[in-house]
Amino acid sequence: MFTGQVALGLILSATTKIVAQEVPAIFKENIPQVAQSKQPVEESPRPLETTSPVTSVSQLSDVQATDWAFSALQSLVERYGCVVGYSNSTYRGNRALSRYEFAAGLNACLDQINKLIASSTADLVTKEDLASLQKLIEEFRPELTQLGGRLDNLEIRTAQVEAKQFSTTTKLVGDAIFLVADTFGDAANNTSANDTSDNTTTFFAYRARLALQTSFNGKDQLTTGLQATNIPNLGVYTGTQMTRFTFDRQGAFADNQLFLDRLYYRFPLGDKLIVWVGPRALQPAVHTPTLNPLVGGINGAVSRFATFNPTIYRPGFDGAGVALAYKFSKQLQLNLSYIGDNFQTNVPAIGFANANNIIFSQLTLSPSNQLDIGLSYVRKYFASNTGFNLTGGTGSAFARNLFQQNATTSDNFGLQFNWKVTNGFNLAGWFGYTFAHQVRGGNSDATIVNGALTFAFPDLFKEGNFGGFVVGVPPKAISNDFRPTPSAARREDKDTSLHLEAFYTYRVNNNITITPDFYVIINPEHNDNNAPIWVGVLNTTFTF
Q1: How much is the CA Rg of the chain, to the nearest whole Å?
Q2: Looking at the domain 170-543, which fold is it?
Q3: What are the beta bridge partners of residue 538?
Q4: What is the pLDDT of residues 124-155, one digit of tens each?
Q5: For 245, which DSSP code?
Q6: CATH 2.40.160.10 domain locations along the chain
Q7: Residues with Cβ < 8 Å from 152, sequence gap 6 or more?
Q8: What is the pTM of this model?
Q9: What is the dihedral of CA 361, 44, 220, 329, to 10 degrees?
Q10: Contact at 8 Å (CB) between 39 and 458?
């Protein structure tokens, strides 16, 4: 047999060969996908990577000369070329492997040695090496035979798939939501005095999305999404936007209308920089970790507020623009973007520079594999009488529209975190602080705050299921100089609302989940004269 070091080297090379098809994460994300094994979330898949041959062991950043297996790896790399590393120049040699994985690695080295012999470089292969290889071949002959049969079957199935697929560059994915819900409790008193009673009944609604994910070189991706929905905005019926769903119908489109949901293109520039550009629905949650991955997905909490920090990740409009993500190291990532309202950027009289817009930035710190922290700053601008809101359709009427429809700028600061306390418990949360300034029709200033804690329990009661709980304060105007008239009261919230939400996701299989969800808004509209409003939901999600 080989010496211990050489045998270990073969095991490590087999491991690398087997996991070469894994897509190593360039960025820690929620970066949303249509479907994941545990928790499908909302939009863009993580960047693609490919493996590359290693010609020197020094190219492997996680292999040191002091490692006890260094000489074995050096021999395999520089004498035989058996080792393949990740495209980020790591080797990851501490992973356990099965006999089949070992057989696959052995087979790869046999192929390489055959090439060396055929190219008249047999002097690199010693008689002792060949004898050791022969013993390994005999020991692993059953696994090698089965591996060969599996590869033959795989080639046949691949040929069948290629013959039937509608495109060699595009994958079709999608999801569908069936929603049964009702609200309970009197409407908030920002409606007329004689219209505060609860007049809703149980309703049944849906959302369906299809996405074409196209790659032209294996590392880029063009996302083209279509959507139709009739899920209502509950704020129309409850008198407060605090009751809204995260996936309700957009106001620009009618019920059951099929429309272009997303259109943006993502591509890498070098090993550390990813670029997004798009004219439709390019929002911060597409390109930036929101650090609420379990609670904030399409199988998680259904309320709009519970998804993520609304003053940071919800621009208040659909997006057209450009975004960058730069990975300084495993512990530090920077995201930047400039996004305009895509219903204005295509109008020549307004254009890309003059549309309602945000300038977005976030530093994501990962001091350990269990903890991520996001520090965000977002500058927003809204022109007069453009139907804007400052808080992404969440929070009180005063917070959403501090100075009525006079042009406004806002500086938004966010602190987000996600802490994997144990394998069965994640603690996440955020705090948002907004300073807003009126730039037309006056010179008023105002301040908004919001915050939440989310508790997620993966594999709760059964593997693949999970539950969660959310407690938070929706966006609240804590101060405001603005008065609609000299004698009118200031548009600021005197009391405090509380958002409480609980859900449990039952995974029927890899493609179907059922999520009962229940949330209550105490003191809706930050007004303790309003009775609590309760929302009950049964959400069934199909992903494909």
Answers
A1: 28
A2: Porin (2.40.160)
A3: 180, 516
A4: 556 666 666 667 667 767 766 766 667 667 77
A5: B
A6: 170-543
A7: none
A8: 0.72
A9: 50
A10: no
